[in-house]
Amino acid sequence: MRDGRDDAFTAFMDARYRSLLRTATLLTGGGSRAEDLTQEALLRTYRAWHRIGRAEAAEAYTRTTMVRLLVKDRRRRWNGEIPAEQLPETPLPGSEDQLVTGVAVREVLRTLPASQRAVLVLRYYHQLSEKEIADVLGCSPGTVKSRAARGLAALREAGLVAPAPERSAAHG
Known about the structure:
With 172 residues, the protein is mainly alpha-helical. It has eight helices and no strands. Helix content is 68%, strand content 0%.
């Protein structure tokens, strides 16, 4: 017999699974690892559903759980390419440049340490503030800033982000 908690969680999962999987794909580089991360985070969200309080907070809770699981996972994993029968997203005609850029960004993200990758995904994909990211990662806003700077430097080095503006001697 299903209760209100199950119905509410099922509705949340039906509505937000694809978005959460996209976040996990950015965090992990994709494939089964992204699916595993999403499912583990959703399992933990389900277990904590009574504490979350409202469905609106569930996505933030799940995203935070995903980031914490990723950062804690120190085991080395193979990051090779895994062929798929079907592409996960079908690009629209005329979006080839965006597709190429997206693939390139994901490739560079995959090379970054998990903590830098998490900061960039939360900041630029989910538009969280430095304070919100610091709360998710359990670190200071200064740590978030330095991780973001190092991650952006890697994207700049790959030619995916415009060069940083030059600082004048009076300001720097």
